[in-house]
Write a structure and sequence with these properties.
The protein contains six helices and five strands; from the N terminus they run H-E-H-E-H-E-H-E-H-E-H. By secondary structure, it is an alpha/beta fold. The protein has a five-stranded parallel sheet with strand order 2-1-3-4-5, with helices on both faces. Helix 4 runs parallel beside helix 5.
């Protein structure tokens, strides 16, 4: 079970061109305490991520304007957004579709219809990794700062 403080601080962006699908995912995650934002196409996804980076993106593949594959590829190609986990959600079940998602940088997949327990389990797992990655990056930055200060003092 995710820590409550971790859950409340976790922001999840749900992306699907079908509003009912977004609402279903939101309902499945409602008891977990996450901050949920919903958008309905690929361009809105990029705009939402630029405004405030989520901790996890639940991304449909088949969407207007920009496909989930394209959105995933763009986010994973950017230094600022590459570490945001992306859980692709799709009605497509062919191995070639999954390969295409992996090539785009997806971290995990769920096939529609969504099983609530599977969704919650994967969301918790990806958020755990996200928070550990953030902690690791903060620790590295702290070590760099300490080393830099030490080097400055040594040159005085």
């Amino acid at each position: 079970m995710a820590k409550l403080s971790e859950s409340k601080s976790s922001r999840i962006l749900i992306v699907d061109d079908n509003q009912q699908n977004c609402e279903l995912l939101d309902a499945y995650l409602a008891d977990e305490g996450y901050q949920i934002e919903m958008v309905y196409d690929g361009q809105q996804t990029l705009d939402a991520v630029a405004r405030q980076q989520p901790d996890l993106i639940l991304l449909d593949i088949m969407m207007p304007r920009l496909s989930g594959y394209e959105v995933c590829h763009r986010l994973k190609s950017s230094e600022e957004t590459r570490t945001i986990p992306i859980l692709m959600i799709t009605a497509l079940a062919e191995m070639s579709d999954i390969e295409k998602g992996i090539d785009a940088g997806a971290d995990d997949f769920l096939t529609k219809p969504i099983n609530k327990l599977e969704l919650i389990t994967r969301v918790r797992s990806l958020l755990r990794v996200r928070h550990l990655t953030n902690d690791y990056e903060r620790l590295l930055e702290h070590v760099r700062n300490v080393e830099s200060q030490r080097d400055e003092q040594a040159t005085r």
